[in-house]
Write the structure tokens for this entry.
Amino acid sequence: MKIAITGKGGAGKTTLAAGIAQLFARQDYQVYAVDADPDISLGTTLGVPEEQLAAQPPLIEMKELIAERTGAGGGIYILNPQVDDILDKYAIELGRIKLLRMGAVKHASTACYCPENAFLHAVVNSLLLGNQEVVILDMGAGIEHLTRGTARGVDLMLIVTEPTKVSVDTARVIQKLSSEMGVPKIRVIGNKIRSAKEREFLVEQFTEEEILGCLEFDEELWERAMLEDSGGLGEVLLKSVSMVFDQILREGGGVAGANS
Amino acid sequence: MKIAITGKGGAGKTTLAAGIAQLFARQDYQVYAVDADPDISLGTTLGVPEEQLAAQPPLIEMKELIAERTGAGGGIYILNPQVDDILDKYAIELGRIKLLRMGAVKHASTACYCPENAFLHAVVNSLLLGNQEVVILDMGAGIEHLTRGTARGVDLMLIVTEPTKVSVDTARVIQKLSSEMGVPKIRVIGNKIRSAKEREFLVEQFTEEEILGCLEFDEELWERAMLEDSGGLGEVLLKSVSMVFDQILREGGGVAGANS
């Protein structure tokens, strides 16, 4: 199963991605968690120490290594389980989670992230996953990863939205672009719900089929987000995310079935 | 004065940009408010009806018009007050605020926003502003507008951050990149502060000179963000933003002086 997590900035993409990754890992999945935002934070949210994150080579550097092995000029990448050793070189292992990041922070006024996005798409698209493997892409805020097509080839697009008009507007644009892109399943997750009124507002914006679930705003989670070196957001986070996780497994269809 | 507003997704860039634009307008500045995020929302936050926003031509379309007038192949754009009529064609007028947007939403998997970013940089960089004129750039979330150099040429970089580790981490990266880019003044604004503990956390992360001010989390503002057609966020927003506005005017130096 390949899952991309998108939404307006601040909606809670990274927190959700970290939570889903940990829950899949608990169910004995091999998880590839990919930070597709050059402004890395998925690693921080998963509790990886800063020095370790700073030392991690970005996935884009793998491009040369693959070119060497395949002799390919750069156009097509054939990845399969046999390249696990390549992926491992770029991954930070957290139990059953392999954390990868798309690209490093570049210098000011030097370049865009088009090559990184193109390469990430090629990697994700050509990964042949086993039944108990899942890729989770934590996309950058906004919509450019969609117009660039970075998330093409995912099975499930999860769009996280807060109960605000601007966040819902972005969710709608993402729905439309994901559909144009041919993503088979596109689902909205309401996040940071503080009241019955907010839940009502959000539920009214989408059809029942479109909404996968809603998560309440969690004051304790927020508190913990302030702490350094918390070792990930822990049980509080997982408890919150587990409210939508079963539904995600169900949407995963055959893959989820293999696990039950 | 040219001001760019940046920060991690969800930190409150757009709300702040809208508030600052309105406060400058009240002081009789001519304000150019530019939505530099292809996932437009500054217009919504300023209270522009959806149909009007949907009909607004993006700034990038001006490129051809300028090429026609100047006969330039596309490299250099000479903009000055005499091209006001061009700008006007692309602006939505809200009193003394002219709202511009960088680019329209593209189709999925078709393109990046590199041309839009390059053009926006050229426009902002070549605008010759009078004393009572200000440009406010509401940048996209994250850091790519910095590695692309879109915000090069601004006088003041305002970095909005929430009191969380990941938001502060992003603020630090933006500080570094802005400095590399040669932005003369770089200031951090703490936002969504909910407690003395959160304020303390934030203040500890930066030097006194680095922090321009802190804004408290405003429950009422949040409530209003849920409402459609609220005609902008109104007085509640302005009251909140005015806490840092005087400081922004002061940082603006000569420009602010001309007004007092």
Summary: The radius of gyration of chain A is 18 Å. The longest helix of chain A spans residues 234-251. Chain A is about 45% helix and 20% strand. Residues 73-82, 254-260 of chain A have pLDDT under 50 and may be disordered.
